[in-house]
Amino acid sequence: MKIEETGLPGLKVLIPARFGDERGFFSESWNRRRMQEAGIDLDFVQDNHSLSAAVGTLRGLHFQSPPHAQDKLVRCGRGALFDVAVDIRKGSPSYGNWFGLELTPENGKQLLVPKGFLHGFITRAPDTEIIYKCTDYYAPECDGAVAWDSCGIDWGFAGQPVLSEKDAAAPRLADFDSPFTWEG
After folding, report:
1. Distance of CA 110 to the CA centre of its chain
2. pLDDT tens digits for range 116-160
3. CA 98, 114, 58, 176 torsion: positive or negative?
4. Out of 49, 62, 68, 137, which one is annotated catalytic?
5. 132 tagged catalytic
6. Which of 11-15, 21-25, 148-152 has the weakest average pLDDT?
């Protein structure tokens, strides 16, 4: 597994090794022991899988607040998506900064999003599937969002994205009081 730093503390790109032949490939997307050896010690308790039918579907920017904050390991199972994380840890040297990465089944890249980051994505292909692991269970009372267009993100999309009602009504980052604190 190759691990790349993103420039935002704690946010990493994981690129699993692939072994392929004429039938396709095999890849180990997560190995707890190997990750512990690399200094990443996470206990994933829930796997999520969503399908977005239309190109330009934007989901985010989401977070789950303490006491049920989640680390996430995100990958694309089908299609293509631009995945984004925004640091919202009060006092962080990178507060409000974002990082984005194209995720496809072909490139095999994964984004490891730590607690204290907003997470979102926009689809680049029809019928795009995103698959992600979480370190805490979904807790509706801790679910939150920040407006997708309030963080200066270049989504690389010219039209109006397809949004949920929740995402369309989310507060702007400038009006948001983050429940996370930088512990660096």
Report:
1. 9
2. 999 999 999 999 999 999 999 999 999 999 999 999 999 999 999
3. negative
4. 62
5. yes
6. 21-25
Q: State the greatest distance between any 2 C-alpha atoms of the chain, in Å, as a whole number.
A: 53
Rounded distance, CA 68 to CA 83, Å? 22
Q: Is pTM, for the whole model, over 0.90?
A: yes
Q: Taking the alpha carbons of 57, 66, 34, 6 in that order, is the dihedral positive or negative?
A: positive
Please report, for residues 20, 39, 44, 58, 132, the alpha-carbon distance to residue 84 in angstroms, rounded to integers and kept in the order given.
29, 23, 20, 11, 14
The separation between the first and the last C-alpha atoms of the chain, rounded to the nearest angstrom, is 25
Catalytic residue among 49, 68, 119, 132: 132
Residue 61 and residue 169: Cα distance in Å, rounded? 11
Can you give the pLDDT at residue 136?
Answer: 98
Please give the full DSSP string across 148-184, using - where no structure is assigned.
TTSS----S--SPPB--HHHHTPPPGGG---SEE---
pLDDT of residue 36: 92
User: Any idea of the CA torsion for 137, 119, 110, 108, to the nearest 10 degrees?
Assistant: 120
68 is catalytic: no
